Amino acid sequence: MTHPTSGTSYLFRGFKLLNHPKLRLFVYIPLTINSIIFAVLLGFSIHWFGNLITWIDHFLPSWLHWLNWLLWIFFALATLLAITYLFTIIANLIAAPFNGLLAEKTEELLTKKPVSQDSSFNTIIKDLPRVLKHEGQKILYYLPRALLCLILFIVPLIQIAAPFLWFLFNSWMMSLEYLDYPMDNHKLELTEIRVRMGKRKLENLNFGMLVMVCTMIPIVNFIVMPAAVIGATIFWVEEYQHDQ
């Protein structure tokens, strides 16, 4: 029987395989995509952040300008969190086809068996509609539940637990996001993926929580996506693949 905390080990093992010769190319592609997206978001946020502070300064009385440094700290933290979530959503949406290919190559490395007959880059184009459909289904699954979690922040008494529930829900979504890649390679629908994940709730939450933490660490957030894809594929091969 698998230990409930084993979910964290899969991400660490994913990091270890990032530079494997057979995976290197498929790691560099999403890594490059991540770098471009993050650079664009960072440039936009710096511009927006500077304009926001200037706008607030305009309304502050001169005797309250000493609050400027506090505003910088507060809005810098808020901007960091916003960029983290936005970066994760956009990066996964754009890199989804390449992540599927990385999951396929990882599984072939682990099992020594081909996942599909055609694993060329042409497959990415052919499978693009199905992959984007899956990404859209995940967004539709996420949005109403995320809204419910956010409403809890304004409900008396329950609001105390709201941050904890918000973190748990997003950790679950991180696990769903990355396990979808190896499972989608085997044409599993999102509903079946969720049923299978439900049998290993603690393992999935531990995996997702560690991914969440890594996405909020500068530099690490660049490489966590391919590491999470590899880790989720190891998770799939060792625990999920032979489920009935």
Draw up the topology in text.
Blueprint: H1 6-16, H2 24-59, H3 68-111, H4 121-151, H5 162-184, H6 190-198, H7 201-215, H8 220-240
Helix pairs in contact: 1-7, 1-8, 2-3, 2-8, 3-4, 3-5, 3-8, 4-5, 5-6, 5-7, 5-8, 7-8
Report on the architecture of this protein.
- The protein is mainly α.
- Helix content is 78%, strand content 0%.
- It is built from 8 helices and no strands.
- It has helices at 6-16, 24-59, 68-111, 121-151, 162-184, 190-198, 201-215, 220-240.
- α3 runs parallel beside α5 (162-184) and α4 (121-151) packs antiparallel against α5 (162-184).
- The protein is globular, with a radius of gyration of 20 Å.
- The two termini are 16 Å apart.
- The relative contact order is 0.17.
The 3D shape can be described as globular
- Rg calc: 20 Å
Number of E-state strands = 0
Q: Please bin the fraction of helical residues.
A: over 70%
**How many helical stretches?**
8
* Termini separation: 16 Å
Q: What structural class do you assign from the helix and strand content?
A: mainly alpha
**Residue-averaged pLDDT:** 80
Topology pattern, helix = H, strand = E: HHHHHHHH
Q: Low-confidence parts, pLDDT < 50 over ≥5 residues?
A: none
Portion in beta strands: under 5%
**Main β-sheet, in a few words?**
none
